[in-house]
Amino acid sequence: MSVNGARGEAIAVLAGEERRLCLTLGALAEIETALGVSGVAALAERMRALSARDLMAVLAALLRGGGEGSLAGALDRAAVDPVEAAEAVALAFAASSGRAGA
């Protein structure tokens, strides 16, 4: 699976398959809504202490941003390990920050 670095895409293995994640503006808005925050500073603070439910909401938004809507909609039934989920979220945010200068 190829990745578009200029778009800030990341690839992570979730439920045994490579999946594309991307922190789009839509995903960011979805994450802010799910976590009940507004703005980057509040989001950064809130991301420091995510519950398992919050983590899955963030992961779902990033998957939808990467075009992986089918897995995003089925996360509650998917075999996604919490550590795998956390690593995927971190990878997506890191990829997004890497495109800031692009």
Please tell me about this protein's structure.
By secondary structure, this protein is mainly alpha-helical. A two-stranded antiparallel sheet has the order 1-2. The longest helix has 17 residues, at 82-98. Helix 1 (25-35) runs antiparallel to helix 3 (52-65) and helix 3 packs across helix 5. The mean pLDDT is 90. The protein has 5 helices and 2 strands. The protein has one domain. Strand 1 (9-14) and strand 2 form a beta hairpin.
Tell me, rounded to a whole number, the average pLDDT: 90
Distance linking N and C termini: 22 Å
Structural class: mainly alpha
Q: Biggest sheet, open or closed, and with what strands and sense?
A: 2 strands, antiparallel
SSE succession: EEHHHHH
Strand content: 5-15%
What is the strand tally? Answer: 2
CA gyration radius, whole angstroms: 13 Å
Counting copies of identical and different chains, the oligomeric state is single chain
Unreliable residue runs: none
The side-by-side strand order for the widest beta sheet comes to 1-2
- Morphology: globular
| Helix count, DSSP H or I runs of 4 or more residues | 5
- How many structural domains can be distinguished in the coordinates? 1
Protein name: GTA-gp10 family protein
Organism: Brevundimonas staleyi
Pfam family, one: Phage_TAC_11
